[in-house]
Design goal:
41% of the residues lie in helices and 21% in strands. It has eight helices and twelve strands. The strands form three sheets. It has a five-stranded parallel beta sheet, with helices on both faces. The chain has a four-stranded antiparallel beta sheet with strand order 6-7-8-9, with no helix packed on it. Helix 2 (35-44) runs parallel beside helix 3.
């Protein structure tokens, strides 16, 4: 598959099991046991996915993710944790995680999550019906660079914000149910909550609505989901 996965896990037996099974699936797996080592490997060797334990010695997985995102790192990150509280899941998403798997988990479930992340990556990288440089309502975003301009000047989006915007652009004028949006951008409906999704919508409004408090493009359809209606040129 020619894809490299970085495993950041301080429990040796878990790390070894993950490495063995990922290599059996055709991936190249690199194992480190702490956050600082993870950052060193990430900065020196291109990786396609990071499996990141939350509870690590020295630096937490959340802090590792924050650091990678602060360096404009776009590598997908799948959190592995024994903590299943909703607030922990929300925090993982807010700091830039792509998925969240609670221990103990089955290897089959992990492999399905990994494949789903790569499928979503492939969708996002394909131009399809939406051009890489997308113009709407006087704004513009480049889905390759994540940079663009809105009513208040230059904007820089996170990868998830870009994925959400692209999903909306592919479904312009349609009412998009929350579970459809979750499946398209995150891949399953157990991780982000309604509150988290609403926060992402608020971010897009802040970036692109002329008046974020009175949106005209990113609309909430109460009891149904959301609708994206960019003004006609």
């Amino acid at each position: 598959m020619d894809r490299t996965i970085l495993i950041v896990e301080d429990e040796a037996h878990i790390a070894e099991g993950l490495q063995l099974n990922l290599e059996m699936e055709g991936y190249r797996a690199i194992v480190v046991g702490d956050g600082n080592a993870a950052l060193e490997v990430y900065r020196m060797s291109p990786v396609d996915l990071i499996l990141l334990d939350v509870m690590l010695p020295g630096m937490s997985g959340y802090d590792v993710c924050r650091q990678i995102r602060s360096e404009a790192g776009r590598v997908p990150i799948l959190f592995l944790t024994a903590r299943s509280d909703e607030d922990d899941r929300i925090l993982g998403l807010e700091v830039g995680g792509d998925d969240y798997l609670t221990k103990p988990f089955s290897l089959k479930e992990l492999l399905l999550r990994v494949k789903a992340i790569f499928r979503r990556q492939a969708w996002f990288a394909t131009t399809g019906r939406v051009p890489d440089e997308y113009h709407f309502g006087g704004s513009v975003i480049n889905f390759k660079t994540f940079e663009g301009a809105g009513p208040r000047g230059p904007v820089s989006l996170t990868r998830k914000e870009c994925m959400m915007l692209k999903f909306f652009a592919e479904h312009t004028g349609e009412v998009v149910a929350r579970d459809v949006l979750l499946d398209g951008v995150w891949g399953y409906d157990a991780y982000p909550t309604t509150r988290t999704i609403d926060n992402f919508i608020l971010r897009l409004r802040k970036h692109f609505e002329p008046n974020p408090a009175n949106p005209i493009m990113f609309l909430t359809v109460f009891g149904a989901g959301y609708k994206f209606i960019p003004p006609e040129k």
